[in-house]
Amino acid sequence: MPPLLAQSILSLLPVVVFLFALELIDTYKLVRIRRVFETIGAGCVVGLVCYVLNSAATHASGLAPDMWARLGAPVVEEILKALIVVGLIRGGRVGFMVDAAICGFAVGAGFALVENLFYLPVISGAGLATAAVRGLGTATMHGGTTAIFGLVSINLAEFSTLDRFRAYLPGLSIAILIHALYNQGFLNPVTSAALLLLFLPLLFSFIFWRSEKVLERWMGTKLDKDMDLLHMIATNTFSESHAGKYLRSLENSFAPVILGDLLCYLQISLELSAQAKGNLLRREMGFPIGHDPQLPARLKELAYLEKQIGRAGKLALAPLLGTSRRNIWEIHQLEEGKG
Q1: Which of 75, 123, 155, 217 is the most exposed place for a label (fewest CB within 10 A)?
Q2: Residue ranges covered by each domain of the chain
Q3: Are 124 and 131 in contact (CB under 8 A)?
């Protein structure tokens, strides 16, 4: 086996194994294997873009590559990696700390795959073991920083009163700081890699424990509320409930046909939400999720009703359905699971 190929495999194999180990111990299977590969691919694209940008910035600024790596590269690389995670959060593709961390680590792993292919030849003269350790440390750092960005950002995006832009600044600042400190070379490559490999499993152990607690509490509270509303709709007692009276109070704000659409949208949303939570519980218990032939039609009807009621209608239903990004995340879970 050529030395360069051996170095690349040795430096990336533990990171890839760690990434897929995270996915396997994800009790509720919040992140599908396909999503993992997609985010790794996105990270590879970011790695290529950053290589071009870093090369151009080094040439334009006249700085030595080592100096740019310490000053400019951490900012450029962490911002571009973070954009992938931001897109997943804002698109409702991640809903909890676990899936934010896994997707963030996958982006970083993809980025490191490309970066190591470009930079390992430069350090290959130091020997197989040294080059592999440096590659491993860099790959772990990239995965870790983007995972930490995802962790901080998903929490702030869900619970913070910060505006859309500022909610992502704390996580980005932490990622850039860790990256910049790593690039200063204060510690030798072996020590840096060892510290990262010690710190990340501890961090992710806490993440999985904490996220499962949050997920279980959220499912219990939200599922009870959803089932109560569905029961009232099914037994024709909804109109006399507080939720029904609230909906009737909107008569002066919406046309009668839109009010009917609001009720239909509410019912289908509640049914799909309960179905998504049921699927999560089945995965947690190891049961297969059966195919629901009616799901595509129900998702299509929900999308149609969403257009009919518009943004004003969705805001009007917010007291009943909530405004959490996890509402969108549940729908994506159903679409991806096909059941």
Answers
A1: 217
A2: 3-213, 236-337
A3: yes
